[in-house]
Design brief:
about 130 residues; mainly beta; 4-stranded antiparallel beta sheet
């Protein structure tokens, strides 16, 4: 299982970025997909999760209304992708962002429940 995250970068406060995570999972639509982040000097924290079916989504309070998680479940492996659209970014969103995958029916929001992780992509928001 490989997860490849991309899309990070440097953006000014108020700007937007879209993160992508391509998953090499044979049955992508079996997996709940989540984004976590780790701000400098802090613990890894939950950002958003989308269920395997795509029907359930959950967000951290700090990003509700600004971030949107979505997924593309095309059978084409190149389209097994989860996205995180991030709008109205602020300096507190600066972090390394990680995508994670977990099989099953429950879209957990705790990192310990996710066995598969991408390598992380840096998001830096300047004031």
């Amino acid at each position: 299982v490989q997860l490849q995250a991309s899309g990070g970068g440097l953006v000014q406060a108020g700007g937007s970025l879209r993160l992508s995570c391509v998953a090499s999972l044979h049955t992508f639509d079996y997996y709940n997909m989540a984004w976590f982040r780790q701000p400098p000097g802090k613990e890894r924290e939950f950002v958003a999760v989308i269920s395997a079916s795509g029907r359930r989504r959950s967000y951290a309070d700090s990003v509700k209304g600004r971030f949107t998680i979505s997924r593309d479940d095309s059978r084409n492996d190149a389209k097994n992708t989860v996205y995180l659209q991030m709008n109205e970014l602020n300096v507190e969103d600066t972090a390394v962002y990680y995508c994670a995958a977990r099989g099953g029916s429950i879209p957990h929001s705790t990192a310990q429940n996710y066995p598969y992780w991408g390598q992380g992509t840096q998001v830096t928001v300047s004031s």
